[in-house]
Amino acid sequence: MDKWKDNKAWFLVLPVFILVAFSAIIPLMTVVNYSLQDIFGPGQRVFVGTEWFQEVLSDKRLHDALWRQFLFSGLVLLIEMPLGILIALMMPKKGWAASVSLVLIALPLLIPWNVIGTIWIIFTRPDIGLFGAAINSLGTAFDHTARSSDAWITLMLMEVWHWTPLVVLLAYAGLRAIPEAYFQAAKIDGASTWATFWYIQLPKMRGVLTIALLLRFMDSFLIYAEPFVLTGGGPGNATTFLSIYLVKIAVGQFDLGPAAAFSLVYFLIILLFSWLFYQVLQNVGKGEKA
């Protein structure tokens, strides 16, 4: 009876679970339905089975977009995770300076994604942009609309500036949750700053860093608005990631069947790698505890 009373709180969140499941399952089943049919118009469709999946998986343009997507997400994680932890370690621990730092750090997260792209278009313009004009004044030609390398540099700078604050805030929260007794014991033992970080702070932050890693991987793998506004997937196909390629199939070509199959493959890739990341991080934590 006591156990039943303790679990009654679940009934308060049950409507939310039902609503989320309802709003997620119906669109998903629609996508599955489209992925198995060739649609000619309203009421005109032919069942094709797995034909669209075979076509999508053998598409070289998809393979290229997938490679670019993995490269982009990998570079984002390699830069943002260490940088976010470093900034969090350098931030004030208490007082008004800590409050001001948190507000300033969080400002990029408040800007809408499409506005981010517009800001960086102006910022990196080779004629009037502060960054683009400054680089060109040094004698180095910079134009993200004409050169693939410049487009990638601009995208990486934009993504790091926009989303590193999320890693910073999560890492900062993890640091502040560590009891002061651990640091006092490390000080008494004469532990160095690096030893304190490696054996106390980093293990204690594993939970929040796992969340940060998963969020940043999923978000960077789903990125669309920023590169679409900034480069439109160009120059050429240099920044055509999976999301942009999917939109070109679904909206540009109006091939609903291949687009639906592509979106399901896209979803499974994200789900698989998120699960792998989580399992690896959890096993590392268990190994260290043992």
Structure characterization notes:
With 290 residues, the chain is mainly alpha-helical. The protein has a single domain (59-289), classed as Orthogonal Bundle (MetI-like fold), CATH 1.10.3720.10. Helix content is 74%, strand content 3%. The protein contains 14 helices and two strands. The protein has helices at 2-6, 10-35, 51-57, 60-90, 96-106, 113-123, 130-137, 148-176, 180-188, 193-204, 206-221, 225-230, 242-252, 256-289; strands spanning 37-41, 44-47. The protein has a two-stranded antiparallel ribbon with strand order 1-2. Helix 2 (10-35) packs across helix 14 (256-289). The relative contact order is 0.12. The mean pLDDT is 85.
Helices and strands in order, then pairings?
Layout: H1 2-6, H2 10-35, E1 37-41, E2 44-47, H3 51-57, H4 60-90, H5 96-106, H6 113-123, H7 130-137, H8 148-176, H9 180-188, H10 193-204, H11 206-221, H12 225-230, H13 242-252, H14 256-289
Count structural domains.
1
> What is the CATH architecture descriptor?
Orthogonal Bundle
Report the principal-axis shape. globular
Helix percent reads over 70%
Could you give me the name of the CATH homologous superfamily? MetI-like
Q: Characterize the main sheet.
A: 2 strands, antiparallel
Order of helices and strands: HHEEHHHHHHHHHHHH
- Report the structural category: mainly alpha
**Count the helices. How many?**
14
- What is the beta-strand fraction? under 5%
CATH class identity:
Mainly Alpha
